[in-house]
Amino acid sequence: MVKLAAKCILAGDSTVGKTTLAQIFRSDGAQFQKNYTLTTGVDLVVKTVPVPDTGDSVELFIFDSAGKEPFSEMLDKLWESPNVLCLVYDVTNEQSFQNCSKWLEKARAQSPGVSLPGVLVGNKTDLASRRAVESAQARAWALGQGLECFETSVKEMENYEAPFHCLAKQFHRLYREKVEVFQALV
Amino acid sequence: MRKVDLCLSSEGAEVILATSSDEKHPPENMIDGNPETFWTTTGMFPQEFIICFHKQVRIERLVIQSYFVRTLRIEKSTSKEPVDFEQWIERDLVHTEGQLQSEEIMGRDGHATYLRFIIISAFDHFASVHSISAEGIALSNLS
Questions:
Q1: What CATH number does residue B119 fall under?
Q2: Confidence of residue B108 (pLDDT cuts 50, 70, 90)
Q3: Which whole number is the average pLDDT over B91-96?
Q4: Which among A18, A85, B35, B108 could disulfide-bond with B130, CB atoms 3.0 to 4.6 Å apart, if both were Cys?
Q5: Hey, is the C-beta of A81 within 8 angstroms of any chain B C-beta?
Q6: Collapsed DSSP state (helix, strand, coil) of residue B11
Q7: Of A5, A174, A182, the CB nearest to B44
Q8: How many CB atoms lie within 10 A of CB B65?
């Protein structure tokens, strides 16, 4: 049995719902914050996620940092040595989806040469009539980037756990792979 | 006086703290004299472990076999309890793809009762330490 620890960085434009996603995940769906507050520094959400079919678990340290400049300028420090990435966009906001590649690049630049497991999360599926980014379009891009793809509605509390469970699973798989590498050394 | 590997569990050394623990790869693996067994870090850095000699020793040569360790700091204490650590050595290691890193340290003033190893950063998400060996002399038992 092992408990892994992973620094998870939450990235994406401001107002896509990063903070709400993290808070709902923390409280198991108990809280939906109706009033928007701009995250200016960083919030830390810590939660342990079991890895299915193993006795193992992953403690996620979710760094929820500002998506809006100028606050995003200190990200280089806050994002140092990430283990996994949760990339969020708003399905009603085409620009927030387009900017994902910029966020992904910035996250990957934090640890060049090291693989960074990640998920792409399209939030606000409850606003169906205003949808601007089709699922297929997001899926195609995510696939090309090696990201697992999810859609959520944090407002309706739908599917908000799946992305984090997926990250825990990916990180656990990575650990297993590295242990095999260590074993093969001698 | 007889020179021995002071970091062997068979010589009385013990890992009294480690910040990561996978049951399958416990910290004792670092001091069992077998480089095939290892301790793994389990995510995020820094990570550290403390070796207790249970006696006063003078270390002349220290060899650390590891993988993916980038910056390593070693502190030592000469107290009876694991307190009052002073920085002894800090090294940036080189990544050796597919091969164990073998870092040899000839420390000045190697008097110690405890060594504290801090892995400040690594080349990957996880790092492993396969063996720690310290050539030197056991001076006296802790009363």
A1: 2.60.120.260
A2: confident
A3: 97
A4: B35
A5: yes
A6: helix
A7: A5
A8: 20
Q: Which residue of A has its CA nearest to B68?
A: A182
Q: What is the number of structural domains in chain A?
A: 1
Residue-range definition of the domain harbouring residue A129? 3-183
Q: How far apart are CA B139 and CA B54, in angstroms?
A: 11
Number of domains composing chain B = 1
Q: What is the largest CA-CA distance in chain B?
A: 45
d(CA B13, CA B31): 8
Provide ipTM, 2 decimals.
0.93
Which of B125, B126, B128, B130 should one mutate to test binding to chain A, selecting the residue with the greatest count of A CBs within 10 A?
A: B125
3-state SS class at A60: strand
Containing domain of residue B18, as a range? 4-141
Spatial separation of the C-alpha atoms in residues B137 and B143, rounded to whole Å: 18
Nearest residue to A159 (alpha-carbon basis) of A116, A110, A119: A119
Contact state of B125 with A175 under an 8 Å Cβ cutoff: yes
CA distance B22 to A181: 16
The strand pairing partners of B104, in sequence order, are B63
Looking at the predicted structure, is the pLDDT value of residue B143 above 70? no
List all residues of chain B from 13 to 72 with a beta carbon under 8 Å from chain A: 21-25, 35-36, 38, 40, 42-45, 67-68
What would the pLDDT profile of A26-74 be if each residue is shown by its tens digit?
Answer: 998 876 666 777 777 788 999 999 999 999 999 999 999 887 766 666 7
Checking if the pLDDT of B125 tops 90, the result is yes
